[in-house]
């Protein structure tokens, strides 16, 4: 995967933007439980009262609170409020309709100042509750903290003389106890604040509704922002993944286009197609899911841990326990499933191999009557794949209910522990609910990991196969300072002491081969199978480079010119006729893009293809299926020859291109070819003597060496190998 990382460089901006949006999405997801907690704690339990210190309170209320403060806390509270005089009360009459006496109103404070006064007021309120507990009978101590909601503020104010007479040690003890519980401080302050608001006529119902609506709006806005971020991340990840896949396909295809036959012999055609399609698709899927999961999971997991610890650090052991159990489950499942995933790929390859062999060799299978044997082979491979897939699916199916069991078990544990904390006034209900959601988010981030563990190994294998193609060193390249062909002796081809050996072979395919083919002449090459005839054609086109010696065209070494310029001079009709899907016209114009209709008719007439073309309803517009399967072997060869002639090259190489033609068509085609290519250098590789017997020069190959050279008549007398070939094909009268 690291080798392909450079293909992400053009998309770094998109990746950075996607990660930024993932942070936005994660922040949105992480903040929603917080707001939900606020709705439960503040909106429902506290009637919309947010702060422990009230916005306004009576003079009696200020005196009550001051009774339970330290000097520093008293200064903080008094500095945060200002007394409203009778003349200013009209400005507050709508907000505080029952305020018939002068009262205190909170000043405009900064966030830090608000937190200080809330802490001071909450501590004083909690101290007051603790004092009430001490003053209450033993049987009623548990309900003392709710006394402010069961009696009116006037009754509390009536207790002021008693509270003023309390020993300083009692108040100090209650104050120290109040400092031990932050949650109790805030709740105590809220209880007194609601009493102060009720005393001043504040509509707590309207305040509660307003707060819930406000927080609900925030949640909707955050959810909308998170949703938009999710959609944009999906869009960006898809564009990045498809863009990388597009560039990889282009690079692989371009690289394969530059391969010589040596590299093509290393990689099979099926393998190159798989690498260009399925392997790249695996990498594409990993990038698409990786941007969304690999980046999002740690952001959500780490953020969830931070938020959960902020809610309750003492319950962190639940997170550790849940993550440990979940990771253990994931590791067990992966240890069982991962080897099977690798085995599945091999079994798929085996099944594809059997299917391909049966489809390509269907006629052979039928001719030998082995259909049942092939069915058994296929059924065995299919059953192995099915069993392995079922095993993996059962393991993965088992994983999901186990994860749900863990998540539900963790939920119950949080509720059980949280309920005890709520009973001890060390936690609020909303905080417990938010903590539960944060733990679920943390576990969800860990659940994402197995998905990536499955995808990464498969994509890594595919990436390695792609990199193998891209990093393959091409053996045949254009020279740094290319030369151009000379106009003198235009079309002259010369092999000079050429030796060549295929990769991994023990012997030379060609050994010290030397000959010269001149313009206006036909040079024929004949010999037994494996003698090196096709190798000469491949070397002339520089599909391979010679090991020793050199090949010259127009006096220039073909290694010193560009490959495109070399092949532009040569018209090539291969041993196996290859037609591309399209039409007859598109195949012919492969030789010359701007060929006119009359020119195509002329060339196809020379190649003896015009007659069968005109018999088709759509003439030159007739379709050619993939591989030319909708035309006969002879028609395919004639179209291949016509395509080579369309180039009007200086050199024509026919590599056994007449083998599928009958003797009559062969004879007519060679005669027409002689007239049409009178100025070109013609190289004919053939098995039939009748095809080459009129050539000006015949080369006889045997085991990679030229063992005979001359005309047909000369070779009959001087070359035993040629005479043996000729006598096996011609009658005694033709040999005489």
Topology of this protein?
Elements: H1 12-45, E1 56-58, H2 59-66, H3 71-80, E2 81-84, E3 103-106, H4 111-135, H5 147-150, H6 153-158, H7 160-164, H8 168-178, H9 182-200, H10 204-257, H11 261-266, H12 269-293, H13 296-311, H14 316-360, H15 362-367, H16 371-423, H17 429-470, E4 493-500, E5 510-517, E6 522-526, H18 533-540, E7 548-553, E8 556-557, H19 563-568, E9 570-573, E10 582-583, H20 584-588, H21 597-606, H22 610-615, E11 623-624, H23 633-646, E12 651-655, H24 663-676, E13 681-685, H25 689-692, E14 697-702, E15 705-710, H26 712-718, H27 720-729, H28 732-735
Parallel strand pairs: 6-13, 6-14, 9-12, 12-13
Antiparallel strand pairs: 1-3, 2-3, 4-5, 4-7, 7-8, 10-11, 14-15
Gap between N and C termini: 70 Å
The counted number of beta strands is 15
The whole-angstrom Rg is: 45 Å
Residue share in β-strands: 5-15%
Strand order of the largest sheet: 9-12-13-6-14-15
Shape: elongated
- Percent range of helical residues: 55-70%
Instruction: Please outline the major beta sheet.
Output: 6 strands, mixed
> Count the helices. How many?
28
Q: Which structural class fits the helix and strand makeup?
A: alpha/beta
**Mean pLDDT over all positions:** 84
As residue ranges, the low-confidence spans are 141-150
């Amino acid at each position: 995967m690291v080798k392909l990382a450079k293909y992400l460089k053009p998309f770094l901006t998109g990746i950075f933007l996607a990660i930024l949006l993932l942070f936005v999405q994660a922040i949105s997801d992480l903040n929603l439980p917080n707001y939900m907690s606020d709705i439960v704690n503040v909106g429902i339990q506290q009637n919309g009262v947010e702060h422990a210190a009230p916005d306004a309170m009576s003079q009696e209320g200020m005196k009550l609170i001051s009774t339970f403060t330290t000097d520093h806390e008293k200064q903080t509270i008094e500095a945060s409020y200002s007394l409203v005089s009778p003349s200013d009360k009209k400005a507050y009459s709508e907000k505080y309709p029952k305020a018939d006496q002068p009262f205190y109103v909170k000043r405009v404070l900064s966030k830090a100042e608000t937190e200080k006064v809330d802490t001071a007021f909450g501590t004083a309120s909690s101290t007051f509750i603790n004092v009430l507990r001490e003053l209450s009978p033993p049987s009623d101590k548990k309900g003392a903290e709710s006394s402010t909601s069961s009696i009116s503020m006037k009754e509390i104010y009536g207790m002021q003389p008693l509270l003023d007479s309390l020993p300083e040690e009692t108040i100090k003890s209650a104050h120290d106890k109040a400092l031990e519980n932050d949650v109790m401080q805030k709740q105590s302050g809220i209880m007194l604040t609601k009493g102060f608001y009720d005393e001043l006529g504040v509509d707590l119902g309207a305040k509660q509704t307003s707060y819930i609506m406000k927080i609900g709006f925030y949640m909707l806005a955050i959810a909308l922002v998170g949703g938009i971020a999710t959609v944009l991340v999906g869009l960006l990840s898809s564009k990045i993944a498809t863009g990388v896949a597009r560039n990889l396909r282009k690079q692989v295809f371009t690289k394969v286009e530059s391969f010589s036959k040596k590299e093509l012999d290393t990689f099979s055609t099926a393998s190159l197609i798989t690498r260009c399609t399925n392997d790249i698709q695996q990498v594409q899927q990993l990038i698409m899911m990786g941007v969304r999961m690999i980046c999002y999971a740690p952001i959500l997991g780490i953020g969830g841990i931070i938020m959960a610890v902020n809610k309750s650090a003492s319950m962190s052991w639940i997170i550790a326990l849940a993550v440990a159990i979940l990771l253990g489950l994931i590791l067990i499942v992966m240890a069982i499933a991962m080897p099977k995933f690798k085995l599945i790929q091999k079994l798929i390859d085996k099944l594809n191999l059997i299917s391909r062999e049966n489809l390509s060799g269907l006629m052979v299978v039928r001719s030998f009557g082995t259909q049942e044997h092939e069915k058994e082979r296929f059924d065995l491979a299919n059953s192995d794949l099915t069993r392995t897939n079922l095993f993996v699916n059962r393991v993965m199916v088992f994983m999901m209910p186990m994860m749900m069991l863990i998540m539900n078990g963790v939920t119950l544990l949080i509720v059980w522990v949280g309920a005890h904390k709520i009973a001890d006034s060390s936690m609020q209900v909303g905080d417990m609910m938010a903590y539960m959601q944060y733990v679920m988010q943390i576990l969800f981030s860990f659940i994402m990991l197995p998905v990536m563990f499955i995808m990464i190994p498969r994509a890594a294998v595919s990436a390695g196969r792609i990199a193998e193609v891209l990093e393959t060193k091409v053996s045949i390249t254009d020279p740094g300072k290319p030369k151009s062909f000379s106009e003198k002796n235009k079309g002259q081809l010369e092999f000079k002491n050429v030796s060549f050996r295929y990769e991994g072979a023990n012997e030379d395919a060609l050994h010290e081969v030397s000959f010269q083919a001149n313009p206006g002449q036909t040079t024929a090459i004949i010999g037994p199978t494996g003698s090196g005839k096709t190798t000469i054609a491949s070397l002339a086109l520089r599909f391979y480079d010679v090991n020793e010696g050199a090949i010259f065209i127009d006096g220039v070494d073909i290694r010193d010119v560009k490959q495109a310029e070399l092949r532009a001079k040569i018209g090539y009709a291969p041993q196996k006729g290859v037609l591309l899907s399209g039409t007859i016209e598109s195949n012919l114009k492969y030789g010359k893009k701007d060929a006119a209709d009359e020119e195509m008719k002329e060339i196809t007439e020379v190649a003896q293809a015009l007659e069968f073309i005109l018999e088709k309803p759509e003439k030159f517009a007739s379709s050619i299926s993939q591989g030319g399967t909708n035309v006969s072997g002879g028609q395919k060869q004639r179209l291949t020859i016509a395509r080579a002639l369309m180039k009007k090259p200086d050199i024509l190489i026919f590599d056994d291109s007449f083998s599928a033609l009958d003797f009559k068509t062969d004879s007519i085609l060679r005669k027409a070819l002689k007239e049409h290519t009178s100025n070109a250098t013609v190289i004919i590789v053939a098995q039939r003597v009748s095809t080459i017997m009129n050539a000006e020069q015949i080369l006889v190959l045997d085991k990679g060496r030229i063992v005979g050279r001359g005309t047909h008549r000369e070779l009959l007398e001087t070359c035993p190998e040629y005479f043996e070939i000729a006598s096996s094909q011609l009658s005694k009268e033709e040999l005489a």
